Amino acid sequence: MIPGLLATGLGLVVLAALAGLFRRGRITALVCVGCAAAVVAIQLGLMWHGYGRPPLRTLGETRLWYAGLVLILGLGLEWRLGTALFRLPMLGFAGLFLALGLAYPDSFDRTLLPALRSPWFVPHVVVNLVAYAGFGLAGGAAAWALLRRRGQPTAEDLHLPLLLLQAALAFLTLGLVFGALWAKEAWGHYWSWDPKETWAWMSWCVAVAAMHGTRRAAPTVQAWGLVAALAVILLSWFLTPHLPAAQVSVHTYGWN
C-alpha cells in the first residue's frame, strides 16, 4: 500500500466531515467524498497491478475495499435521495478503515493460493463487501437514530435504512451462492460448516430476522434489529479468524 494515498483519502474524509458541519457545506462534503473514493480506487488499482493479483486476499486489502465501497454507496445514496442520513456512518467506517490501513499496513505479497485462482474469487468477495457496506450504512444510521432520539427513533428515521437492509441482504445472499459454487469447484462440495461459512449463515439469518421478524414491531425494535445485523456481520468478518476452529479453516488464507 502507498501510505501517501491512504493519508490523502483519510484527509479528504475528515474534510468531508468538517464541511458537513456547515449549512452550505453539502456540495463540498460530497466532492470530498467523491475524491476520497477516487483515491481509494487508485490505490486498489495500483495494488492490483503491482501484486499481479486481485487485492482481496488479506484482511487489510478487504478493509480498503470496504472503505471505497462504503464511500461510493453512501455518496450515491446521498446524491440520488438528497439525504444526509447515511453520511455519518459512511464517513465513520471509511475513516476508521483508512486509519487502520495506515496503522497496520499489509506487506507486499504476490502469493495467490491455488484455491483462490478461480473465476468466483473476485465476484464472491466483492459482492460480500458490497453487502457489508450496505449493512454498515443501515446499521450505523439506525444506531445514530437511537442515540439522537434517546432510544425512541421514528418510523421515518428507519424507512431508508430498512430499504437498504433489503438490498444488502440480497447481495449477502448472492455472496453465499457464489461462495457455494466456488467451494464445489475448489473442494468438491457446496457447504462444509466451516467456521466462516457458519458465521456467514448466522449473519444471513440475523439479517432476515431484522427484515421480516421486526416488520410489524415498534421503530425501536426495528432499529435494534438493524444494529444487531451489523454487529453480527462485523463479528463474522473480524472475529472468525481468531477462533480456535478457524486454525484448520479453508478460509484461513484470507487473513494472512
Protein described:
This protein is mostly helical. It has one domain (54-245). It is 71% helix and 0% strand. It is built from eight helices and no strands. The protein has helices spanning 3-19, 26-51, 59-81, 87-103, 121-148, 155-187, 195-213, 219-238. Helix 6 (155-187) packs antiparallel against helix 7. The model has no long low-confidence stretch (mean pLDDT 88).
Short account of what is shown:
The model has no long low-confidence stretch (mean pLDDT 88).
Discrete helix count: 8
Mean pLDDT: 88
Count up the domains: 1
Helix content: over 70%
Oligomer: single chain
What's the main sheet like?
A: none
Shape: globular
Parts with pLDDT < 50 across at least 5 consecutive residues: none
Radius of gyration: 18 Å
Strand content range: under 5%
Structural class label: mainly alpha
Please provide the count of β strands. 0
What secondary-structure arrangement, pairings included, does this model have?
Layout: H1 3-19, H2 26-51, H3 59-81, H4 87-103, H5 121-148, H6 155-187, H7 195-213, H8 219-238
Task: Supply database-style keywords.
256 residues; 8 helices; single chain; 0% strand; mainly alpha
